[in-house]
TrEMBL record:
UniProt protein name: N-carbamoyl-L-amino acid hydrolase (L-carbamoylase)
Top-level taxon of the source organism: Eukaryota
CDD domains reported in the protein's UniProt record: M20_bAS (cd03884)
Pfam family, one: Peptidase_M20
UniProt subunit comment: Homodimer.
GO cellular component: endoplasmic reticulum
Gene Ontology biological process: purine nucleobase metabolic process; ureide catabolic process
Cofactor entry: Mn(2+)
Keyword field: Hydrolase, Manganese, Metal-binding, Purine metabolism, Signal
Record InterPro entries: Amidase_Cbmase (IPR010158), Bact_exopeptidase_dim_dom (IPR036264), Peptidase_M20 (IPR002933)
Length: 429
């Protein structure tokens, strides 16, 4: 076929999983909470240290490294025909408070190891292969998930919202970015990161399952066929508050109890959706002033609901809104906020990439199964830019977003190998 060095057969692709584990451990040390937990929030000092650490590994692997205005980082392995749209892969390294060290990280460091094993095998890509470290996938600091990939996919709404978004300490997005070395002043700066259609021929993401299926069924590889549709809603109630002793019950309009009642009503709506695939979480519930002897005068809830069926999920959001209005009336509190922060459609994986992954698992003699991802990922937004698919590996008891998160060396090596073989194949198409 005239290409130098056809990809060597998978059996010669030996993954240096010891080095990968060392890198995962070293990266986890850049954290704002003590080991074994990891907390690494967008644009903090620890985030900057972690970014530099990964950029160094990209450089050591001979990749050309560039960053965009918001800090998405790209490491490119120049291909034989550099003019063609590259194959891309990657994930995130930011970590929610008190979480683990594998979520996202396996898809960044594992992608770099996939490139290293292809290089060691003498393979030369036709299309360039590009590893993307998305600037922030978790919603922690500015309340929106997949900030980096959402912008890459061209979200005008997010570009304008970020111009007047502040974090919990009243630091603006622009100032936070500046403190990390990303100097933006205008909406144009932010939207300069939008990718043109056709920038990439494909996007693949390696990720821990963040669920128990692969481990419990003893399956080595998950091939993701669809990513569930996530949505997040902010709700606020306001009442008169007052002295916990002096105000008798009939004279209260307790914003805290309104929040509590809404949370339980929301759970009912989710359970009554008609499908096990509908999930709902009230992950944040704040009471103001937050004193034991003061009736909450304000409450703030951040609600996460997802489903593989977008309509069914949207129905839950409508019922949530109806309940919030009803509870506010009944309890004589003000519904001060009901804001849908994001209401994203699900994403379907590209069939041709799914079969390339299936083939890679087969030639590597690995068991595999097709499955949906109930967690969202940067792939959800990259699917708006190019054909996408994901590779899952098992994680201990499905744990994620907590310090006990763990993926074995064998499982990581399997995932890296399937990623490498798939990247090699797609770089030749
Ligand atoms: O919440 C999620 O699904 C992702 O892991 N941030
Ligand atoms: Mn996560
Ligand atoms: Mn993740
Ligand atoms: Mn994710």
């Amino acid at each position: 076929s005239g290409y130098p060095n056809e990809p060597s057969t998978p059996s010669f692709l030996s993954v240096d999983v010891e080095t990968l584990q060392v890198q995962i451990d070293e990266l986890s040390s850049f954290s704002d909470t003590p080991a074994p937990s990891v907390t690494r929030i967008l644009y903090t000092d620890k985030d900057v240290l972690a970014r530099n650490y990964v950029k160094q590994i990209m450089t050591n692997s001979g990749l050309s490294v560039r960053e965009d205005a918001v800090g998405n980082i790209f490491g490119r392995w120049q291909g034989y025909e550099a003019g063609l749209a590259p194959v891309s892969t990657g994930s995130h390294i930011d970590a929610i408070p008190y979480s683990g060290k594998y979520d996202g990280v396996v898809g960044v460091l594992g992608a770099l190891e996939a490139i290293n094993i292809l290089k060691r095998s003498g393979f030369e890509p036709n299309r360039s292969i590009e590893v993307i470290l998305f600037t922030s996938e978790e919603p922690t600091r500015f309340g929106i998930g997949c900030l980096g990939s959402r912008l890459l996919s061209g979200s005008e709404k997010l570009a304008s919202t970020l111009m007047n978004t502040v974090d919990a300490h009243n630091i603006s997005f622009l100032d936070a970015a500046k403190s990390a070395g990303y100097d933006m002043d205008s909406k144009q700066d932010i939207s300069s990161v939008f990718l043109k259609k056709g920038t990439y021929s494909a996007f693949l993401e390696l990720h821990i399952e963040q669920g128990p299926l692969l481990e419990s069924e003893g399956v080595s590889i998950g091939i993701v066929t669809a990513i569930a549709a996530p949505a997040s809603i902010n709700v606020g109630f306001e009442g008169n508050g007052g002295h916990a002793g002096a105000v008798l019950m009939p004279n209260r309009n307790d914003a805290g109890l309104a929040a509590a009642e809404l949370a339980l009503e929301f759970e009912k709506h989710v359970l009554q959706s008609g499908s096990i695939d509908t999930v709902g979480t009230v992950g944040i519930m704040e009471l103001h002033p937050g004193a034991i002897n003061s009736i909450p005068s304000k409450s703030h809830l951040e609600i996460d609901t997802r489903d593989i069926d977008e309509e069914r999920r949207n129905k839950v959001i409508e019922k949530l809104h109806e309940s919030a209005i009803k509870i506010a009336q009944r309890r004589q509190v003000k519904l001060s906020e009901f804001k849908i922060v994001n209401q994203d459609p699900p994403a379907l994986s590209e069939v041709s990439i799914i079969s390339a992954m299936e083939n890679a698992a087969m030639v590597s003699n690995l068991s595999y199964k097709f499955m949906i991802s109930r967690a969202y990922h940067d792939s959800l937004f990259m699917s708006r830019v190019c054909p996408m698919a994901m590779i899952f590996i098992p994680c201990y008891k499905g744990y994620s977003h907590k310090p006990e998160e763990y993926a074995s060396r064998d499982d990581m090596a399997n995932g890296v190998k399937v990623l490498a073989i798939t990247l090699a194949k797609l770089s030749r198409e």
